[in-house]
Design goal:
Elements: E1 8-12, H1 16-28, E2 32-35, H2 45-48, E3 74-78, H3 82-94, E4 102-105, H4 115-163
Parallel strand pairs: 1-2, 3-4
Antiparallel strand pairs: 1-3
C-alpha cells in the first residue's frame, strides 16, 4: 500500500518576519508548516516530511553537505493539491513576501534525496534558467539594436532620396 503524503510546507528562511508570515499563511490554509534547519541538510527529504516507507540511503555513498555551507532560502511542498498550491503561491505574493528562488514539490524521484542534494539540484536548475534568461535578453537587445540600425539606415536612405 502506498503511503500518502500529509499536506505540508517545509521552509528555510532567515528573516524573522518572513518566518511568521509563512506560518500564518500555512495556518490560514490548514497546511502544516515545518521550519528546516542546517542540521537537516544530510536528512532525506521524505524523512523530513514524515514518510516512513522511504529507502534509507547509504550515507557513505552520498555527497554530504560541507561543514561550512550557506543554506539558501527554500520552500518544499509535500502532498498539496495543485489548486491549493496555486492559492498558497498567490497569497504568498499578495501579502508581499520576497520571492524565494528555490522551490520544490516532493516527487517519487526526490523523496529519497537529502535536503542538500535537493538544494544542489534546484540551485543548478536555477542557474541554468537564469543563464538562459540572460542569453535571451542579450539576443533580444542585439535584435533590437540591429532593427534600430536598419531603421536608421532606411531612414537615412529615404532622406537622401528626398533630397535628390
Amino acid at each position: 500500500m502506498k503511503e500518502t503524503q500529509k499536506s505540508m510546507i517545509l521552509y528555510y528562511v532567515q528573516d524573522e518576519k518572513k518566518k511568521i508570515q509563512m506560518e500564518v499563511l500555512g495556518m490560514s490554509m490548514s497546511i502544516t508548516t515545518k521550519q528546516l534547519k542546517p542540521s537537516d541538510l544530510n536528512t532525506q527529504v521524505g524523512a523530513l516530511v514524515g514518510l516512513k516507507n522511504i529507502t534509507p540511503l547509504d550515507l557513505s555513498q552520498v555527497e554530504k553537505a560541507p561543514a561550512i555551507f550557506y543554506m539558501p532560502e527554500i520552500i518544499i511542498f509535500s502532498g498539496i493539491p495543485n489548486k491549493m498550491l496555486d492559492e498558497f503561491l498567490f497569497s504568498y505574493k499578495k501579502v508581499g513576501l520576497t520571492p524565494t528562488k528555490l522551490k520544490a514539490v516532493i516527487t517519487p524521484k526526490n523523496v529519497n534525496w537529502t535536503l542538500y542534494q535537493l538544494i544542489r539540484e534546484l540551485s543548478s536548475e536555477r542557474a541554468q534558467i537564469e543563464g538562459m534568461a540572460k542569453l535571451s535578453t542579450a539576443r533580444l537587445s542585439t535584435a533590437k539594436l540591429s532593427t534600430a540600425r536598419l531603421s536608421t539606415a532606411k531612414g537615412l536612405s529615404e532622406a537622401k532620396k528626398e533630397r535628390e
